[in-house]
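Pasting as-is:
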Amino acid sequence: MASVASSRAPAVKQGARQGVAPLRAGEGTSFLLRRLHSLSGIVPVGAFLFEHILISNSTAITGPDAYAKQVAFLGGLPLVFFLELFGIWLPILFHGLYGFYIWYRGDGNTGEYPWSGNWMYTLQRWTGGIAFVYIIWHTYTMRFTGTDLHAFPNASFGKVQAELMNPLLLAFYIVGLVAACWHFAYGIWLFAAKWGITSGEKARQRLLAVCMGLFAVMTLVGLVSLYTFRARFPQATVEPGTSAMRANPNSAAPASGTQASGASSATSSGKPVE
């Protein structure tokens, strides 16, 4: 009889249907940690990705002013440091590091059992690893290096824009964005199956279609946001320690003739306009 803790896929009988193994009690600490890992991927990590891509980053599509207002709103939330610490950073670290542990303990079986579900399992692990590195990098560079965007939100558009002008970083952002969107969208399907929310095959198929639609929408919005940062507005230079932004004279003007709004968004004192 195979042990419950065994990481190897059990032999599958002829004609047996493939499914998603539920999270079962009786596994002690492992059961609790896997429950927390599964839940944290939806709330708060998944909720953070949803907000960051479909709400905050989507405001950049309308221009630097709207993006600066969104950054200022988030930076002005009460106890924002603790909200970030307990609502974003620690959950992401737990979900990512424990996910690597699960990956390390598991045995890939895509060659032995070439089912679509097993390939999905492997893809989920790889996209999770890529997304983890991407989120750590993006959080570190935007939150802890250079201009403090909570203090100077008008510099936010130019700071992101400056990173995306590097072709290698742009490629890294695109790969990381797609990986994060896939990992979250397919993770919702896995969450529902493992927690017994979708118990039937038809229910799983319908939810899978919804999750793939969510993946497509999030990816599209994210890619349009990246395009906006890089190409739709003149590159702005950020003066260190201030919120002042000025258009780079070497940058081409946008096709619509829209001016970089950050150029006039700071007062002569260097403080952001309320």
